[in-house]
Design goal:
Blueprint: E1 2-5, E2 7-10, E3 13-21, E4 24-26, H1 38-61, H2 69-83, H3 85-88, H4 90-98, H5 102-118, H6 123-143, E5 149-151, E6 162-165, H7 170-177, E7 183-186, H8 194-202, E8 206-208, H9 213-216, E9 222-226, E10 231-234, H10 238-259, E11 275-280, H11 286-292, E12 297-301, H12 315-328, E13 333-337, H13 364-370, H14 372-386, E14 390-395, H15 401-420, E15 431-435, H16 438-442, H17 444-450, E16 453-456, H18 458-466, H19 484-500, E17 504-506, H20 517-522, E18 527-530, H21 535-544, H22 547-559, H23 563-574
Parallel strand pairs: 3-6, 6-7, 7-8, 11-12, 11-18, 12-13, 13-14, 14-15, 15-16, 16-17, 17-18
Antiparallel strand pairs: 1-10, 2-8, 3-9, 4-5, 9-10
Helix pairs in contact: 1-2, 1-6, 2-6, 4-5, 5-6, 7-8, 12-14, 14-15, 17-19, 22-23
The structure holds phosphoenolpyruvate and magnesium ion.
Length: 583
């Protein structure tokens, strides 16, 4: 049995067979290298071998100390193969003698080696051909340009399977959701990447940053995924399977207990009413919203309508997707966020989103204000949908006041067009903004003066405040919603909205994380928007809390002079018998 560790990003237990997603088939180019460049080609090959050596050493250094010895010996075998002259020197002869390009020389040598192993009598040695092929593939990947790789399509029938992948884009997660997967595991990734967020809102257990998962795990192997602890068991013995089946039942029981709160009010012991709203990505997510009886939608991430397709949805398609959600929630607010494409949320449609630092580039409202035609189609669809219920328009990633002015101007233009055509819309539709860039939080009073409501996007606010890429697993350890700088920005935003007399919500992952609910209540937050699966757990905490007491504790938290005492004060707020622990 092998236990691998990563970052658990979506609670729950799944037991199922692995499907290892090989995302890229390699297209091996074949060409003659002109004589004067042959030595450069040799250097290119040697550099790729060296990068591969470093990668393998890096994976080896990430093996947890308590992992079984097989984990390390597997990597040692790969390092030995890489160092063998048959792999690291023979292709050089072909590059020099035949003027072959490095990829073709390596692939030819690898085919020769695989043929030799295949002819061996000993089944153990015969199996070694897989190791050779894996090592060669690693070197080839280091040789090839990204555009020489070709994605393998995701197969259709993945029902009940645990998908193991190097990394998954949000668009992949949406596609996998529809194929009925039981859980997913990735080599890379972070807890607030959009892929991780999706796994939570879809209720799919998931572990990211399991270094080397795609190397250790073979297709069809039985896996146990513990999404809360971030542990993955491969080829488990019966006792472990039995233990995890017991745990899965316990989680189901606790979930049933929480369901008893479905129709109860989200009101604290001292009578403070709290709005518990849902974050959704697609109209299909509404089942979870009804199940939790959310007070409305606090964040409709419309960019997911634009993924897994080559052309953007037209006005009618968008209108239908918005109205579907609105009609399902009569009398309840539906906050539709305008397109937030860019950074890790990429679409196949032709848009100028790629740049050296995509998270700091043409993303969200910046992209929309550049692609005005695309943006106006969305505004028309949202405005038309506003005639059918209580719609709020929310603008992501605001960083200066001109962006608000420009969006308002475009909304007015679209309203005028609709009016001229006699098409209904809500003329009083509130226009709010996300506070997720530190610049907007620091000047939240100025932003509040020009907006009808604010919503704090802690995922990006933390990313940009602490300068940690939300999808980069090497800096995940720095992700900390309790960092005093983050807490100050949150407090400034809440206070600015209260002073301005406008509503303020939080729709980042922090809002659905039970460890922060009491502190946020104490800081004055009254609208929490989260993945629907978290709503009942947060409601339980609200109902058990005295907001007056939490306010006093929050004052102490904000006055803490060091990180450790701050954490201790938050722990104390949460109490020893934290009833939120679902497992
Ligand atoms: C956020 O940044 O907190 C947020 C809710 O937006 P997204 O996660 O979609 O970037
Ligand atoms: Mg965001």
């Amino acid at each position: 049995m092998l236990a691998l560790h990563g970052k658990g990003v979506s609670n729950g237990i799944a037991i199922g067979r692995a499907y290892v997603l090989k995302r890229e088939r390699l297209k091996i180019p074949e060409y003659v290298v002109p004589a004067p460049f042959v030595e450069d080609e040799v250097s290119r090959f040697l550099a790729a071998v060296e990068s591969t050596r470093q990668e393998l050493a890096d994976i080896r250094s990430h093996i947890p100390p308590d992992a079984p010895v097989e984990a390390a010996s597997f990597l040692d075998t790969h390092l030995l193969i890489l160092n063998d002259t048959m792999v690291s020197e023979a292709p050089i002869k072909d590059i020099r003698a035949n003027q072959w390009n490095a990829e073709f020389a390596l692939k030819t040598q690898s085919d020769r080696l695989v043929a030799v192993f295949e002819a061996m009598e000993d089944p153990y040695l015969r199996n070694k051909k897989t190791d050779v092929a894996q090592v060669v593939e690693r070197v080839l990947r280091n040789l090839l340009n990204p555009d020489e790789r070709e994605d393998e399509p995701i197969p259709d029938d993945l029902n009940g399977r645990v998908v193991v992948a190097n990394d998954l884009a949000p668009a992949d997660a949406v596609a996998l959701k529809n194929k009925g997967i039981a859980a997913f595991i990735t080599n890379l990734g972070g807890p607030i990447s959009h892929t991780a967020i999706l796994s939570r809102s879809l209720g799919i257990p998931a572990i990211v940053a399991v270094h080397g998962a795609t190397r250790f795990i073979d297709n069809d192997e039985e896996l146990i995924v513990d999404g809360k602890r971030g542990i993955l068991f491969v080829a488990s013995d019966r006792a472990v399977v039995a233990e995890y089946e017991k745990r899965a039942h316990k989680i189901e029981r606790l979930q049933r207990e929480l369901e008893a709160l479905r129709t109860s009010e989200a009101v604290s012991r001292d009578g403070i009413a709290v709005q518990l709203l849902a974050n959704i990505e697609l109209p299909e997510d509404m089942a979870g919203v009804h199940q939790a009886l959310a007070s409305g939608i606090g964040l409709y991430r419309t960019e997911f309508l634009f993924m897994n397709r080559k052309t953007p949805p037209d006005e009618e398609e968008q209108f239908a997707a918005y109205v579907k959600v609105i009609l399902e929630l009569p009398g309840r607010p539906v906050t539709i966020r305008t397109l937030d494409l860019g950074a890790d949320k990429r679409a196949d449609i032709d848009l100028p989103t790629a740049s050296a630092n995509p998270a700091l580039g043409l993303r969200a409202v910046r992209l929309c204000l550049q692609e005005v035609a695309l943006f106006k189609v969305q505004l028309r669809a949202i405005l038309r949908a506003s005639a059918f219920g209580s719609v709020r328009l929310m603008v992501p990633m605001l960083s200066n006041l001109d962006e608000i002015a420009r969006v308002v101007e475009l909304v007015r233009e679209v309203q005028e067009e609709l009016r001229r055509n006699g098409i209904d819309f809500d003329p009083d539709m509130p226009i709010g903004g996300m506070i997720e860039v530190p610049a907007a939080a620091v000047a939240a009073d100025l932003f509040a003066a020009h907006l009808d409501f604010l919503s704090i996007g802690t995922n990006d606010l933390i990313q940009y405040t602490l300068a940690i890429d939300r999808v980069d697993d090497t800096v995940n350890y720095l992700y900390d919603p309790l960092h005093p700088s983050v807490l100050r920005l949150i407090t400034m935003t809440i206070d600015a909205a209260v002073t301005q007399g406008i509503p303020v919500a939080m729709c980042g992952e922090m809002a659905g994380d039970a460890r922060y609910t009491r502190l946020l209540l104490g800081l004055g937050l009254r609208e929490f928007s989260m993945h629907p699966s978290a709503i009942l757990e947060i409601k339980k905490i609200v109902r058990e809390s005295s907001v007056a007491d939490l306010k006093r504790s929050a004052v102490q938290v904000m006055a803490a002079r060091d990180f450790r005492s701050l954490q201790a004060l938050v722990d104390r707020m949460n109490g020893d018998g934290d009833s939120t622990a679902a497992d």
